[in-house]
Design brief:
Layout (H helix, E strand, L loop, with lengths): L1 E2 L5 E5 L6 E7 L12 H17 L7 E6 L13 H5 L19 H7 L17 E9 L4 H4 L4 E7 L1 E10 L16 H17 L8 E3 L3 E4 L9 E10 L2 H22 L2 E9 L3 E2 L2 H13 L6 E4 L4 H5 L5 E6 L15 H24 L1
Parallel strand pairs: 3-4, 3-5, 5-14, 6-13
Antiparallel strand pairs: 1-2, 2-4, 6-12, 6-14, 7-10, 7-11, 8-10, 9-10
The protein binds glyoxylic acid (GLV) and manganese (II) ion (2 copies).
One manganese (II) ion (MN) binds next to loops.
Length: 363
């Protein structure tokens, strides 16, 4: 076991060097979140490794099990950290003055976990080093549960795009300022929240399109003061790159129109822009074949949530196994998956690993 320069926690089975097979996910969770998102994938991967050891099974390549650093973006808005760093998509230059909500510099936090923040590039893997990456995860949706299925084969992963927006008006007396003389930042933000909802529901966005304003900071946030400034985040996601581009453009246009109409100043910065990730056919095939081997129907579905698999995709052929979760609830304390489904998911993960190993051996 080791901690790489990005503070990813990595267990390795097999000799040093060369190409590897990789299983993993994350063990961090959103604030006020659940206990299954990410964690199931790491525990499932460890279980696969344990079973291989107990059964004395040799794979043709060494196996790594990775608990990726900081997948959830709630800790610093650069996240996911570990998988992006491993893929070379995030370097030390991006860290700048990033500070965790606990007040530590991101660099110090990485070092405290055993990483090497001055040298995170050492965690980078190049194309070809990872023969295949597989991730087990709860679906975070209702498709499998509604169809009474335990297992799903992920086809593609929707891309989140996130903007930081500010709307600035004039803080003033909530009693003494007439309605027609106000420049209320929060009233403008409220319009933007509804605009984001409308944009995400537009036919252009296709089925997996979603939009959310999940965070607002209102200033000065007093009962008797007109809100002078609001900072907020806008997130849009889709599995369709074109729909996503249209949604981002529409957010920018709506924001400009709202600000003009209300005499507000505005800024918008798309800080996090991803592209949808179709998972390679042969990796989908490995998971589908594993389902067939174990007697599960093959149900293919896209992922609306994002995952380390998507961030690792530029350097590793990635496949994902979904398991059913209760009422699709996730990023909330009610998040739940039955132990039996987790066990079945781990079995499919292990079987898919055999398939990927076979492909690696024959390549
Ligand atoms: C991951 O947690 C996501 O926000 O999709
Ligand atoms: Mn999550
Ligand atoms: Mn997750």
């Amino acid at each position: 076991m080791r901690v790489d320069a990005a503070a990813n926690l990595i267990g390795r089975r097999g000799g040093p060097g060369g190409r590897v097979l990789m299983l993993g996910s994350h063990t961090d969770t959103v604030e006020a979140g659940g206990r299954f998102d990410g964690i199931v994938g790491v525990v499932g991967a460890l279980e696969v490794a344990r079973c291989l050891n107990e059964a004395g099974v040799e794979l043709s390549l060494p196996l790594e099990v990775v608990d990726f650093l900081c997948e959830e973006p709630t800790i610093v808005n650069l996240s996911p950290l570990g998988s992006r760093i491993m893929a070379g998509n995030l370097t030390g230059e991006h860290f700048g003055g990033a500070v965790t909500p606990f007040g530590d510099a991101l660099t110090d936090a990485i070092d405290a976990l055993g990483g090497d923040s001055a040298n995170v590039e050492a965690a980078r893997r190049s194309l070809g080093e990872i023969a295949g990456y597989l991730e087990l995860h709860i679906e975070q949706g209702v498709v499998l549960e509604r169809e009474s299925l335990a297992i799903g084969v992920v086809t593609s992963i929707a891309a989140p795009c996130r903007a930081r927006v500010s709307l600035t008006g004039v803080a003033d007396h909530a009693g003494a300022t007439p309605m027609n003389e106000r420049r209320d930042g929060l009233a403008g933000a409220a319009e933007l929240v509804l605009a984001v909802e409308r944009i995400a529901r537009a036919p252009d966005m296709i089925e997996e399109g979603v939009g959310t304003v999940g965070w607002l900071s209102v200033s000065p946030n007093m009962v008797n003061v007109i809100p002078g400034r609001v900072d907020l985040t806008v997130e849009v996601r889709s599995t369709d790159a074109e729909a996503l581009a249209i949604a981002r453009r529409s957010v920018d246009e709506e924001l400009r129109a709202i600000a003009d109409r209300r005499g507000l100043e505005h800024t918008v910065e798309w800080q996090h822009v991803e592209r949808p990730v179709p998972l390679p056919e042969h990796m989908q095939g490995a998971v589908a074949q594993a389902c067939e081997d174990l007697g599960f129907p093959v149900r293919r579905l896209p992922s609306r949530a994002s995952h380390d698999a998507a961030r690792l995709a530029p350097v590793a052929p990635a496949g994902m196994v979904f398991i059913r979760c209760k009422e699709g609830r996730s990023h909330c304390p009610e998040e739940w998956a039955d132990l039996d489904d987790i066990v079945q998911g781990a079995r499919v993960l292990g079987q898919a690993l055999f398939r990927v190993d076979e492909m690696a051996r024959n390549a």
